[in-house]
Every structure is written in C-alpha cells, then in structure tokens.
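JOB MANIFEST
job_type = single_chain_structure
chain_count = 1
residues = 255
[input]
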Amino acid sequence: MSRSGVLADRVGVITGSGQGIGREFAEAFAAAGATVVVADLDGENAEKVAAQLRGGGAQALGLGVDVSDETAVTRMVEAAVAEFGRIDVLVNGAAIFSTLTMKPFEEIGADEWRKVIDVNVNGVFLCCRAVSATMRAQGSGTIVNISSSTVLGGRPNYLHYVTSKAAVVGMTRSLARELGPAGINVNVIMPGSVETGIPRDSARPEAVEQIVGNQALKRRIVSADIAGAAVFLASDAASMITGQSLVVDGGMNFL
C-alpha cells in the first residue's frame, strides 16, 4: 500500500540506524512515508527498530551489517533489492565516534587509526559502490553522507575522527561529479555537537555548555535536527542539489 509523505514510495537504506542519530533517521524516513532498511552492526537492534517502524505502519527490514566488510555490504544491498525491488536513498550513518577517547594524536595507535578509517571512510565507499549499479539502472537515486562540522575548524584530540570525516566530504564531491550524469544526487550533512543519548568523551556538561555558547542559536542540537536535514536531501525539494555540504551546527560555522 502506498503511503503519504515527502518520501512516499521511496526505499531508503540507512546504515548505523540501530541507535542514536541513525535511529532518528530511520524514524524520520518512515514518518515521511519511506520504506526503510534498518542496517546496523548490532543486528538485534536493527530488527527492534524495524519492528517498531512496522508497528507504526511502515514497511521496514532490519539487517545486521558491518559496513567495513565488503561481502556484508553486498549482501545488505541484495537483501534490500530482493525485499523491496529498488533502492532510492542511501544514508551512510554508520561511524565510529562515541567509543573514541579524546587523546593527543601521538597516542593514537595504528590499529585504532585503521579501525576508524575502515568504518568511517571505507564503509562509506563500500556502501556507495554497492548501491551504484541499482541506482544507475533506475536512472535515479540519492546518497546522503554524514560528516562533521569539526572538519571546518579542526578539533584537537580527535585526529582520527576528524580526518575520516574530512575524507567523506571529498568523497561526496567527487561522487557527485561521477554519479550526476546517471541522475544520482550525492550530498553530505555536517552536524555539530548532537545530543544523542549515547555517552561519549566529548559530551561532558562543561564541554556542551561551551559549544552551545559558541553557536549562533543557543540550544543543544538534537538528533531530529539532523534527521530533518536528511529527509530534505532525500526529497524532491532537493532534486537539483548535489555535491553540497549542509552544515547543521546551530551557527557554529558559516560556509
């Protein structure tokens, strides 16, 4: 049955959507009428979110996926197409961040560095590559990548994370050029410090107070703010927007 909303009749694959901002993406897409593939490293969480969406009347599929695993990503796309027949939107929300400890870059081990790059950069590449054939065959598609506004000003003690998110911006721009002729839009959201409910080293009360104080808009950014931007970029309202960075940081940075 067709559902109403700005994303009605679209199928969206959302990685990292078992919790936090990613879960908010899944809920917002479903509320906007989309069919949602909830993909997360924690397959149990993914299925719980998918079940919640189905309970609200949406079509949804929960999948356990490690985005740094090429075979797993291929299977994710195959499962989505087998279940729903197409993929209209890919949101690359999976990333390593909340588990990272702030530290001088000299203290970041090579294994930790590689792990962050493997998920935050290689995972985005693998997912984009995996959906490209389906989107090219359709003659349409939208990819929404997730970076970070820390890329704009730099941030000490998070070199692995900031570097990985800077790479996503470059990837977005190059993919927009490469996939544009096939009718595929590629954009990137650059969130500021977001209240996700997930504990992390950078979200201590004193740090949050300072961040909000430096924003033009004096309230904490919440996951729904980022999800709203993703819904917009996935909708017809953004059909002629590609290769762009949408900063959602309360006015901390201006482009």
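[summary]
The longest strand covers residues 184-191.
The mean pLDDT is 96.
exit_status = 0
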